[in-house]
Write a structure and sequence with these properties.
- The chain is an alpha/beta fold and 415 residues long.
- It is 17% helix and 31% strand.
- It starts with 16 loop residues before the first helix and ends in a 7-residue tail after the last strand.
Length: 415
């Protein structure tokens, strides 16, 4: 059945950005739990509580190279002690240390019975038979006790924890080769439009290179998801249908272009045929036209985000709407960027009825923020120069120099 592009009528009332985000977060599914190798779990969300299955460290050991001694023998210095052996990391002492005795010891090596202190080698003459201790050393110095990091049976990480390098190391120290996490989303991304061409294609009249696929695929990867980069989809209902059917196995779909109300914007009618559309126009700048819905795949519902074709609009709407959704799909509780307050170093004009996400350069030391320069929706350099978005609310049409404004810190991840 032919589809008329005129069916893509704009909404009578623009939706607020907050309402749009709330509906998106309520509409995206949490991805299933999967078991992954430990090194593949970085950035993912833990799907189970983890209890230590052993003490870490499992035995008393030395925190440095030196001499294992009885603390009472080195309460004052200088003092001479008889060296009765040596223990290296990976070895084990073959006897105890008695009064007046010591044993050479390496970092990480098990402490011999009787010894309760390590004198660093720099505080000795490093002798092999009779060693002179040149500095008094408090009892208990440089000892790592069994279980001081992890105790067997204690919960060391809780469900919902985002796994950073430190958590990966903690799991490794507990002997976990694999771990249950929320699945990493596989996100299909493609661009639409007759005017765009691949990077290595010659530019004809009226054509531009397709930067959006690369911008959005990189943003997808930065949020911890796996981009599934597809091609350019031309402006026809049949081409869109074929593209959507090809990527229906994805966990989410991100497109750019074709979401306005022109004669060649077919995104909304095609998605209405293959799934559902939730909303269409948002009271923001840049990025007013935006589609959110679901593609039907049997019992599965695949979230789809139709972003504007302008480069800045596509990246800003990804930041405000898609990024939080992909984090929520991964099981993240906190999906928001950190915010700060800063004073404008220049006035900013805006449309009063729209919320404006200006690209800015935030100076945290000075507590100020300034524009990156021209703010047109096709000026991608404004995003490249920015370390924040300046969140200017609906209402005023001019924000004066020196006013305190909200700043979204886009170069910092959520805590």
């Amino acid at each position: 059945m032919p589809i008329s592009a005129t069916s893509a009528k704009p909404a009578q009332k623009l939706m607020s950005a907050d309402d749009a985000l709330a509906r998106i977060l309520a509409g995206v599914p949490a991805l299933p739990e999967v078991e992954v190798p430990l090194l593949d779990a970085l950035g993912l969300v833990l799907a189970e509580d983890v209890a230590a299955d052993r003490d870490v460290p499992p035995f008393r050991n030395s925190a440095m190279d030196g001499y294992a001694v009885r603390g009472d023998d080195v309460a004052s210095a200088p003092v001479e002690l008889r060296v009765v052996g040596e223990v290296a990391a990976g070895g084990f002492p073959d006897r105890a240390v008695g009064p007046g005795e010591t044993m050479r010891i390496m970092t990480g090596a098990p402490m011999p019975d009787g010894a309760d202190t390590v004198v660093r080698v720099e505080d000795t003459d490093n002798a092999a038979d009779i060693v002179t201790i040149a500095a008094a050393t408090p009892k208990g110095t440089s000892i790592r006790h069994a279980g001081e990091d992890l105790k067997k049976g204690e919960i060391i990480l809780t469900k919902g924890t985002v796994l950073r390098a430190a958590e990966i190391g903690l799991l490794a120290s507990d002997g976990r080769a694999g771990i249950r996490v929320r699945k990493r989303p596989r996100v299909a991304v493609f661009s639409t439009g007759d005017e765009i061409v691949d990077l290595d294609a010659p530019l004809g009249r009226g054509q531009i290179r397709d930067s959006n696929r690369y911008t959005l695929a990189s943003a997808i990867r930065a949020v911890g998801a796996e981009p599934w980069v597809r091609g350019i989809v031309r402006d026809s209902p049949d081409a869109l249908r074929a593209a959507f059917r090809e990527v229906v196995a994805a966990d989410a779909i991100v497109t750019s272009g074709g979401v306005s109300v022109g004669d060649h914007d077919f995104m909304k009618p095609v998605l209405s045929e293959l799934g559902t559309i939730d909303f269409w126009a948002i009271a923001i700048r840049p990025g007013r036209p935006l589609a959110f819905g679901e593609l039907n795949d049997g019992d599965r519902r695949v979230p789809i985000f139709g972003l504007p074709g302008n480069t800045v609009s596509a990246l800003v709407t990804f930041e405000i709407f898609v990024r939080p959704a992909l984090l929520r799909m991964q099981g993240r509780a906190n999906v928001s960027r950190p915010r700060a307050k800063a004073r404008l170093t220049e006035p900013v004009d805006k449309i009063g009825t729209l919320r404006f996400f200006a690209r800015g350069i935030h100076d945290p030391d000075a507590g100020t923020v300034r524009l990156t320069g021209p703010q047109g929706s096709g000026i991608l350099r404004s995003m490249s120069l920015a370390n924040c978005l300046i969140d200017l609310p609906v209402g005023p049409s001019r924000i004066e120099k020196g006013e305190l404004v909200d700043v979204i810190l886009t170069e910092q991840p959520p805590a």
